[in-house]
Amino acid sequence: QLHLVESGGGLVQPGGSLRLSCAASGFRLTYYAIGWFRQAPGKEREGVATITSSDGSTYYANSVKGRFTISRDSAKKTVYLQMNSLKPEDTAVYYCAAGGIATMKMSEYDYWGQGTQVTVSS
Fold first, then answer.
1. pLDDT tens for residues 51-76?
2. Greatest CA span in the chain, whole angstroms?
3. What is the full DSSP assignment across 48-61?
């Protein structure tokens, strides 16, 4: 059974960094594209970053480009989201998801983790 578990969230000051992890079980990581999404209170869930299953190409939302980095460690079956220069508007629950193609469209992802809270505040 395919399973995703996020970790690494927490409280950080503006300008700080966090690294989120998405641990996969029940499938080979390289068979799926992985996406990171986030949902702030009162807002719709939005795509943040994705990584392809084939060659590891990455894509980012404009709001995080240059600050966030998605990466994959296939041996550890884990996908990471390194978040630097965090801003209060990055506060949200962050989810990872597995799907057939790397896209910011939630409907293309079949499997979701339970989410991890990131709060950016002084």
1. 999 899 999 999 999 999 999 998 89
2. 40
3. EEEE-SSS--EEE-
